[in-house]
Amino acid sequence: MDTTLDPVEVAYAGVLGQRAMLRDRRLTAVELLDLCLTRIARLDGRLGAFRLLLRESALQEAMAADVALAAGDERPLLGVPVAVKDSLAVAGVAASQGTGSPEPPAARDAEFVRRLRAAGAVVVGITTMPELALWPFTESPTWGVTRNPWGLDRTPGGSSGGSAAAVAAGLVAVASASDGGGSIRIPAACCGLVGLKPGRGVVSLAPDRDHWEGLSSAGVLTRGTADTAEVLAVLTDDVYPLLPPGPLRVAWSVTAPVPTPVDPLVRDALDRVLDVLRGLGHEVVPGDPDYRRVQASFLVRYGRGVAADLARLVDPSATEQRTRAVAAVGRAMPDRLLARAVRWGQEAAQRLSVLPARADVLVLPALAAPPQRVGALRGLPTLAAAGRVVPFTPAWNVTGQPAMSVPAGHTPDGVPLAVQLVAPPGGEGLLLRLAAQLEAATGWTSRRPPLDD
Predict the structure, then answer these.
(1) How many other CB atoms are there within 10 angstroms of residue 404's CB atom?
(2) SS3 of residue 140 by DSSP
(3) Backbone conformation region of residue 97, classed left if phi is above 0, alpha if psi is from -120 to 50, else beta
(4) Chain mean position to CA 28
(5) Cα–Cα distance between 181 and 60 in angstroms, integer?
(6) Is the pLDDT of residue 382 over 80?
(7) Any catalytic annotation for residue 353?
(8) Residue 420 maps to a domain
(9) Is 160 among the catalytic positions?
(10) Catalytic: 317?
(11) How far apart are the C-alpha atoms of 43 and 376, rounded to whole Å?
C-alpha cells in the first residue's frame, strides 16, 4: 500500500474513491480488505453492525480481484468491499432474517448479490437487522443491539440498521438495504447517509417475485450520491449521470398520512434545505399529498407480508413475541381485505404519481424526530410507537414510486437530521441529480462520526 495513504481516509473514500486507489495501484484489493477487517475489529464491538464476517471467502475474492486488476479489468466494483443485509441470500450462508431460526445455507446468491459479485465486489460480511425487517430500529434478542456511529446511545434506524452503521462508520463504502416501509430511508436519515428507495421493480428482488404484497424495494446505503448512482447502475444495467437537474418546481409538506407532530429540529432542517433549493434556482411551493387510504393499504399489506415471512422460517417460534403478534394480526386479515388494500394502493399510486402542486419533486421530513435513543420503544406497543416516529416513509412504498433520504445537518449534540425527496414514477435519476446538487451545496460528506477522534 502507498505509505502516504491514511487508513482513515481510505475508509471514508467511498466506492469511487476506493476504486480509483485500486486502479491506480496505490493499494491492492487484499490490502483494502485487510484495512476494512482491521477497522471492523476495532470498532464493531461498539457498533454491532455485522452479524457475520466472511473472512476466508472475502480473501479469495480480493485475491482474484488483484489478478483481474493487474490484467486491466475495469469492472465498476472490482476489489471494493461491500456488506450484505441479513435478508439477502448469499451462497453458503444462512440468512437469519434477524431471527434465531436455524435457517439453511442458501444454495445460490440472490440476484442482487450476484450482480455485485459480477461487478467485482468483495462480500465482507452480513449486517444486522431487526426480526423480519419489522422495525425502524435494529435490536433483537438473538443478535443484540446495533448502535449509531454518531452517538452510541442512539439507534441507527431499521430495518437496514447494521448496513447503515457499517457505512457511516467507514467499515465498508456501501452496503445492501431493503425498504418495505422506510428501511433504506430511515437508517440513512439516522446515520447521515444517502438512501434511495428505487421504484417498485427497478432493482430485482429475485429469487422473490414480490415481497410484502408489493411494498418492498431493494437498494443500497452510501455516504455520497455518486456512489449510490454507480452501484444502482450495477444493479439495474442503467446509467444515472449526475448532471444539474435544471430549474425544478419543488413542493414541500410536513403533513403525514396520520396526524403527527414534527420536532422543531426536523422542521428547521427541512426549512434550511428549502432555502438551499431556492438559492439553487428552484421554485419552492407548499403542497400536501392526498393520502386517502394509504395508511390502511400499508398496514394490511405489511401485516400479511410479515405473516408470510414468519411462516417460511424453519422455526417460527425462534422469534420475539411482538414479531409473532404482528404476524398473527396479518394472518387474521382475510384475502378480500388484502385485495381491497392492494386496490387502494393502486388508486393512491395513480393519484400521487402527479405530485402536489404539480411539482417535479416533493420534499418531506424523513423522520418526525431526530434518531431515537436505543431501547426507546422497548416495552411500548411497538407498532403504534414506531408509526409515530416514521410516519412519512410508508406512503411511498404503497405507491411504489422512488423516494430518497438525504442528510440535512445535525442536531446540537451532533446527531444527523435528514429530509426525504419523492419523485414521480421513473424519477430515480431526477432524485439522484437533485441530491448531487444538494450535496455539492452543503458538503455533507465532509462530516464523519466521532469514532477516530
Answers:
(1) 31
(2) strand
(3) left
(4) 28
(5) 36
(6) no
(7) no
(8) yes
(9) no
(10) no
(11) 23
Closest to 211 in 3D by CA, of 168, 159, 258: 159
Calpha distance 303→305 (Å, rounded): 5
As a whole number, mean pLDDT of residues 422-426 equals 98
Report how far residue 231's alpha carbon sits from residue 77's, in angstroms, rounded to the nearest whole number. 8
CA distance 246 to 301: 37
CATH number of the domain encompassing residue 204: 3.90.1300.10
Catalytic option among 87, 159, 163, 176: 159
Q: Which of 163, 176, 178, 183 is catalytic?
A: 183
Contact by Cβ (8 Å): 220, 174: yes
Peptide bond into 253 cis (omega under 30): no
- Closest-CA residue to 87 (of 73, 101, 77, 74): 101
194-197 and 174-179 strand pairing: unpaired
**Count of CB atoms situated within 10 Å of the CB of 394:** 25
Rg (CA), the chain: 20
Would 303 be classed as within a structural domain? yes
Residue 263 grid coordinates: 420536532
Residues 99 and 396: their CA atoms lie apart, in Å, by 27
Residue 2 within any structural domain of the chain: no
Q: Which domain holds residue 137?
A: 8-446
**Domain-located, residue 35:** yes
Per-residue pLDDT reduced to its tens digit, 323-372? 999 999 999 999 999 999 999 999 999 999 999 999 999 999 999 999 99
Here the cell at position 444 is 455533507
pTM: predicted TM-score of the whole model, two decimal places: 0.98
CA distance 422 to 401: 8
Burial class from Cβ neighbours inside 10 Å (0-12, 13-18, 19+) for residue 393 reads buried
What domain count does the chain have? 1
